Amino acid sequence: MSSVGYVFSGKQDGAFGLTRWLETPARLARELTDNRGMHETPDTDRHPYAHLTPDVVLDALASVGLYGDGRLTALSSYENRVYQVHLEDPHEGHAAVVVKFYRPQRWSPAQIQEEHDFAHELVVGEVPVVAPLQLHGQTLHQAAGFAFSVSPRRGGRAPELDDMDVLEWIGRFLARIHTVGAAKPFAVRPALDTDSFAMEPRQWLVQHRMIPLEVEREWFDTLDLALAMIQTHPVLTPALASGRIRLHGDCHPGNILWTPADLPGAGPHFVDLDDARMGPAVQDLWMLLSGDRRQRSLQLSALLDGYEQVRDFDRRELSWIEPLRTLRLVHYSAWLARRWDDPIFPINFPWFGTPDYWRGQVLMLQEQMEQMNEPVLSV
Questions:
Q1: What is the pLDDT of residues 199-256, one digit of tens each?
Q2: Where are the alpha helices (DSSP H) in the chain?
């Protein structure tokens, strides 16, 4: 996470609370010539983002009354395109803003607007999130075929998650996010469930023949065993739907900007509500856990110490952590495959799609099944 501004970190390698993906040498990266659907070189001119030139970015910003001085920096984001732009004249005290261009055809305007409305509810509730600016009475704008928003630039660095005081602080603010999130449901944004995070991605991978033949059967058989465990989970299945609230949805460390305690505005600031959806509260906690079982237990204890100062937490949800991690594992692989026509993906994920990648996924699914049979983390 850069310390120079508000970075929509999006879907970054290693940012999913999962074991780091199996790295493959350059030799295996060249195996992308395999003919299994995704391994053709993307046509960079055909992708919509190919037309998002600096001039288009600056013209879009000018259409809402803000004028860049020519300094424009692309920020780290894979799902969307995000740029930091310095302004000729500060806007409401902001010398620079962040312009986010939403991936075409991912969210409807109504779904994006729900994200923005949730962010502004959080701001009203004095929760430190970076919300889009209202310009000409609205937060969602259109230019050159793209939906876009403009947010203030916010500095910060990654939080020190081995510091229990930091985790407790984050836990308090997560509870405040969930207090606002529980006030009403989303009307049009999707929910986190086994259908959207596993069954539909599985079917998509089958239809598009994304798994190399030599590992295809093993991966699908292992996945089906893991999904059977989730679908028969004694706590997860009935309670996942009934306990849903509006969530951040993608609360990994890259989406928290931390300001040290000795500086103004100290503490966490949450960014990138792009994956906000209905789901269980524990979804916003588990991606902040790492290390061995003892380390994860200590981290979770600190998070809940802070959380329960503000809001009650249903301890039954702790048994959902490994099933949720498993669902995200499947969803992530399908997400990479669906985005392969975007030239930025083959460049940044050259190891994806090789037989060794999918063999690594088989091993990770097997490990997840073992984890789902382990006792729940004690706090």
A1: 999 999 999 999 999 999 999 999 999 999 988 876 555 555 567 999 999 999 999 9
A2: 26-29, 54-62, 109-124, 164-181, 194, 200-207, 213-231, 236-242, 283-286, 293-307, 321-338, 344-348, 355-373
Same domain? 291 vs 245: yes
Q: What is the pTM of this model?
A: 0.86
Strands 141-143 and 146-152, bridge-based pairing: antiparallel
At 145, is the pLDDT very low, low, confident or very high (cuts 50, 70, 90)?
very high
Catalytic residue, candidates 59, 163, 224, 250 = 250
The closest of 138, 14, 144, 148 to 81, measured between CA atoms, is: 148
224 is catalytic: no
Burial class (CB in 10 A: 0-12, 13-18, 19+), 55: exposed
> What range does the domain containing 306 cover?
164-373
Q: What is the domain-level CATH number for residue 102?
A: 3.30.200.70
Counting the structural domains of the chain, the total is 2
Backbone angles phi, psi at 288, to 5 degrees: -90, 0
Set 162, 221, 272, 292: catalytic member:
272
Please report, to the nearest 10 degrees, the dihedral formed by the alpha carbons of residues 324, 327, 333, 337 taken in order: -120
